[in-house]
Structure formats: C-alpha cells, structure tokens
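Budget justification aside, the reviewers requested a transparent look at the raw inputs and outputs of the sequence design task funded under Objective 1. We therefore reproduce one unedited record. The lines immediately below are the structure tokens for a 273-residue chain.
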C-alpha cells in the first residue's frame, strides 16, 4: 500500500471507533486493567511506533497517543462488572472480594493519536468478556466484530496461560484479519523465580513473555505489565491495526470493512462506529 493510500485509510479508521476485545481466563485481572486504563487522564501516554517509510506514524512516545479527559463511558451488558479483582491488581484500590465479569462490559474512551499525517481524536471501544467457559460463543461473536484482540493471563500461573491458549483456539475460527496482543498481568508482590529467597508472601513469576507469545499465531507482541503501564496493551493493539493497514492487500481491505460496516454486535449494542 502506498503512503497516500495508507494515510487515507488510517484517517478513516481513526475517525471511527477502534474496537478491541479483551479476553482471557476468569480472575487474571482483565477488568481491573481496563478500569485502570479508563481512569488514566490527559497525561496517560501509550507507547509504540508504526514505521511508514522514513516518517514514523507515532502511537506514543512523548505526546503520542494520549487519553482525553472526560470522554469515558461504560455500559454493562448480560450481567455485572468486576471493577477490581482481589488484591487490587494494576493500581486499582484493593477489593476484598473477587467478582467475575458476568457476560460482557463495553467501555469507550476518547484518545488522541498524533504523529505524521495523522492527528485526529478517536474512540477506543473495549469489550471486556467474562472468562468463564460458558461465554465461548459470546467471545466468537465479539471477536469477529473487533479490530484487535488482547489475550490476558496471570504471569504467576502457567495454568492461566493454558486456559488462555484454549480460549484463543476456540476464538480462531471466528477471526479474520485481527491481530492479537498477548498480555501477562503481574499481580502485586510478584518476584522472578530467580529472586525468590524461600520466605515471605511474594508470588513467583511462572511465565515469561517468550513462553507466552506462541499462545497465538496472530501474536504481534507479547508483554507483561504491572501498575506502571496499564495503557501499553491498548497502544500496541492500535499499532498492530495500523500495521495491518500499512501491509495492504486483503488484510487491509478486511480491516477497513470492519471499520466502515457496522456489525450485528454494533447494531445490537447501539454502538457508534
């Protein structure tokens, strides 16, 4: 795809809602991650760069992709919401009881994507899907309608990574061009296995980013995050979508179709696309 065509497609995409599904086993901290991201104010910057010839289109860095204050809304569908998992993962205040997400929670946030020829305000729509097995078909319905998927697991639990891999394999038949960001969530008081001294109440990291990456053949990045960088997976998701556009061909055409054509899910939930 030529630079002019890419710039035009990117502007069209960023003028609409960028839809991202957040999936993974129950209890790993997906909802807390999203809620923390939604609370990031104007100073919250997302990291990542998309190279376009000699001029990178920035999706981060200094003043790159910033959250706009006062433009967050959240709606709950098919049940409740888990605003914080037990232990206060990713910087949200401690909760004494873990409440799993029942069904689907949809949130939207205005962000600024700046750099190169692209400088619009855009909307990121986040689909927080319950991690229970009974939501398998719901994950499929959402997966085919979004631009990207963030697959979450708990870095202190190899079992959670196995469960995440199962969810990803179940979702695969529903997907088209969607890239995947594999995201390990680091609970509080987590240490590396090499740093464990045999005492204390620290949790031990059981999974590395390199081990988690092959969970999905669509993986564009494998990261592990803590309280200091809740925005990173969402920035990488947008970056991966822009890279699909830049690659051109069928993936770019399918990505633009997702942008320009409201899905059944958009109509059902009355979402602005």
């Amino acid at each position: 795809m030529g630079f002019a065509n890419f710039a035009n497609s990117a502007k069209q995409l960023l003028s609409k809602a960028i839809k991202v599904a957040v999936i993974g086993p129950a209890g790993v901290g997906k909802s807390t991650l999203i809620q923390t991201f939604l609370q990031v104010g104007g100073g919250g910057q997302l990291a990542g760069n998309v190279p376009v010839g000699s001029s990178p289109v920035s999706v981060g860095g200094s003043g790159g992709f910033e959250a706009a204050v006062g433009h967050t809304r959240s709606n709950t569908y098919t049940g409740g919401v888990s605003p914080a998992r037990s232990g206060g993962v990713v910087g949200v205040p401690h909760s004494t009881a873990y409440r799993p997400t029942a069904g689907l929670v949809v949130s939207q946030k205005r962000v600024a994507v700046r750099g190169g020829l692209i400088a619009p305000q855009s909307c990121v729509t986040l689909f927080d899907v319950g991690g229970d097995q009974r939501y398998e078909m719901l994950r499929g319905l959402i997966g085919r309608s979004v631009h990207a998927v963030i697959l979450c697991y708990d870095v202190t639990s190899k079992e959670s990574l196995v469960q995440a891999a199962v969810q990803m394999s179940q979702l695969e038949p529903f997907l088209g061009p969607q890239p995947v960001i594999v995201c390990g969530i680091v609970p509080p008081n987590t240490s590396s296995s090499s740093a464990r001294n045999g005492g204390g109440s620290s949790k031990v990291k059981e999974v590395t980013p390199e081990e988690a990456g092959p969970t999905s053949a669509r993986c564009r990045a494998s990261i592990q995050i803590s309280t200091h960088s809740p925005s990173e997976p969402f920035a990488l998701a947008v970056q991966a979508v822009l890279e699909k556009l830049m690659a051109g061909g069928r993936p770019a055409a399918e990505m633009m179709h997702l942008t320009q054509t409201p899905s059944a899910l958009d109509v059902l939930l009355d979402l602005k696309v």
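The longest strand covers residues 65-77. Residues 42-74, 76-97 have pLDDT under 50 and may be disordered. Computational costs for records of this kind are itemized in the attached budget.
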